[in-house]
C-alpha cells in the first residue's frame, strides 16, 4: 500500500489551471496525505540591480515573493483548493529549491505538471523536469492535463534481461509501486520489457555467427525472465509485453496502444559529464511519452544536493 503522508505540488505561475495541484489533491484524497503548494520565483531584472545596497535588493526579493504568495493564495481559493500549505521561494534554479524543500520536510512525492509544446501535440519537458528526475531522491510524478479514470492501464517499465542485483531490485520496486497505484486507482498493471536487436556488425564480421540463433536465445531469455518476474507478483501473462527494440521506442508504443494513464519507470540519476554525454534511458523514454510518468530512484540513491 502507498505510504504517502506529504505531497509537494509544484505550481507554475504561467498556467491558468494547475494539473499538478489537481493530481496531488486526487492522490491526497485517496491516501490521506497533506498537500503543500510550492512556487519558485525569480525576476531577471534582479540581475541588473547590483548597484543597489544589499538591503534594497533584499527588499526587492521580499516584495516579489510576497506578491506571488498573495497571488497563489487567491488563485488556490478560486480553484477550490483549501487547507493547502503555501511555500514561495526565490531561486533562479527552481529544482534546487524543490529538492532542498523535499529533503528538509520529509516529502514523500513531488508532483509537477509538464508543458504542451506550442506547435506540436506532444508534451515537452523543461530543464527543471530533467533535474528533478536526475537529482530528486523522492518519486517525481510528471503529469499532463487529463483524468485518471478507474480501470485505467498502468505500465511498469522493467528490465528483466539484466542479471545485476541493482536492476533486479529496481524491477521489484517498480512492480510493487505499479501494483500499489493500480490498487489505488482500481486499474491494472502491465509489465513492459524490451530486448536489443542482433548487432549487425558481429553478423558481418564473424562468418560463423548465426544471427537467428542469437536473436532467439536473447528473446527466449527475456521471455523466461519476464514470466518468472510476473509470476512473483501475480501479474497474468497477457499483461506482459516483451518486444524487440530500444526502450525509448517500445515503451511509448505500448503506452499508446494501451492508452495508458501512468508509466512507472526507474531512473539511475546519472549526473555530471556522463549524463550530458550518455543521458539516461529513462529520459529518452519519457521524452516520447504522452501520459503521466512516475520516475523512481533505486534504493540507496543519494541526491547530489544532499551532500
Summarize the structure.
The chain contains ten helices and twelve strands. The chain is α/β, with parallel strands linked by helices.
CATH class of the largest domain: Alpha Beta
The CATH topology assignment of the largest domain is Rossmann fold
Order of adjacent strands in the largest pleated sheet: 3-2-1-4-7-12-11-8-9-10
Largest sheet: 10 strands, mixed
Low-pLDDT residue intervals, each spanning 5 or more residues: 117-121, 273-279
Search tags:
Universal_stress_UspA, two-stranded antiparallel sheet, alpha/beta, UspA, Universal stress protein UspE, about 300 residues, elongated, cytoplasm, Rossmann fold, single chain, 12 strands
Structural summary, described in words:
With about 300 residues, the protein is an alpha/beta fold. It folds into two domains: about 1-145, Rossmann fold; about 150-305, Rossmann fold (3-Layer(aba) Sandwich). The chain has ten helices and twelve strands. The strands form two sheets. Strands 3-2-1-4-7-12-11-8-9-10 form a ten-stranded mixed beta sheet, sandwiched between helices. It has a two-stranded antiparallel ribbon with strand order 5-6. α3 packs parallel to α4. The longest helix has 25 residues, at about 55-80. The two termini are about 30 Å apart.
Q: Mind sketching the topology for me?
A:
Elements: E1 6-10, H1 19-31, E2 34-41, H2 54-78, E3 85-90, H3 94-104, E4 109-113, E5 115-116, E6 123-124, H4 127-135, E7 140-143, E8 153-157, H5 165-185, E9 188-195, H6 200-205, H7 211-232, E10 240-244, H8 247-258, E11 262-266, H9 273-277, H10 281-286, E12 292-296
Parallel strand pairs: 1-2, 1-4, 2-3, 4-7, 8-9, 8-11, 9-10, 11-12
Antiparallel strand pairs: 5-6, 7-12
Helix pairs in contact: 3-4
Amino acid at each position: 500500500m502507498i505510504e504517502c503522508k506529504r505531497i509537494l505540488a509544484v505550481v507554475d505561475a504561467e498556467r491558468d489551471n494547475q494539473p499538478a495541484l489537481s493530481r496531488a489533491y486526487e492522490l491526497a484524497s485517496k491516501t490521506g496525505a497533506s498537500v503543500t503548494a510550492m512556487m519558485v520565483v525569480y525576476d531577471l531584472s534582479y540581475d541588473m540591480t547590483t548597484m543597489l545596497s544589499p538591503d534594497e535588493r533584499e527588499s526587492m526579493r521580499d516584495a516579489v515573493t510576497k506578491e506571488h504568495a498573495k497571488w497563489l493564495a487567491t488563485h488556490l481559493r478560486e480553484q477550490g483548493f483549501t487547507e493547502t500549505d503555501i511555500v514561495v521561494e526565490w531561486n533562479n534554479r527552481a529544482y534546487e529549491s524543490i529538492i532542498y524543500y523535499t529533503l528538509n520536510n520529509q516529502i514523500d512525492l513531488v508532483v509537477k505538471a509538464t508543458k504542451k509544446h506550442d506547435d506540436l501535440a506532444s508534451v515537452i519537458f523543461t530543464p527543471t523536469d530533467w533535474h528533478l528526475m536526475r537529482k530528486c531522491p523522492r518519486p517525481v510524478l510528471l503529469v499532463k492535463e487529463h483524468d485518471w479514470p478507474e480501470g485505467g492501464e498502468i505500465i511498469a517499465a522493467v528490465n528483466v534481461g539484466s542479471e545485476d542485483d541493482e536492476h533486479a531490485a529496481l524491477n521489484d520496486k517498480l512492480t510493487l509501486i505499479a501494483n500499489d497505484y493500480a490498487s489505488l486507482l482500481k486499474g491494472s498493471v502491465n509489465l513492459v520489457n524490451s530486448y536489443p536487436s542482433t548487432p549487425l556488425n558481429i553478423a558481418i564480421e564473424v562468418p560463423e555467427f548465426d544471427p537467428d540463433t542469437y536473436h532467439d536465445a536473447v528473446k527466449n531469455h527475456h521471455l523466461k525472465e519476464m514470466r518468472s518476474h510476473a509470476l512473483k507478483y501475480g501479474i497474468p501473462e497477457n499483461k506482459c509485453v516483451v518486444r524487440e527494440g530500444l526502450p525509448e521506442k517500445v515503451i511509448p508504443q505500448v503506452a499508446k496502444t494501451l492508452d495508458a494513464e501512468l508509466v512507472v519507470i526507474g531512473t539511475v540519476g546519472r549526473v555530471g559529464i556522463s549524463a550530458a554525454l550518455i543521458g539516461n534511458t529513462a529520459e529518452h523514454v519519457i521524452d516520447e511519452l504522452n501520459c503521466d510518468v512516475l520516475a523512481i530512484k533505486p534504493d540507496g540513491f543519494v541526491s547530489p544536493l544532499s551532500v
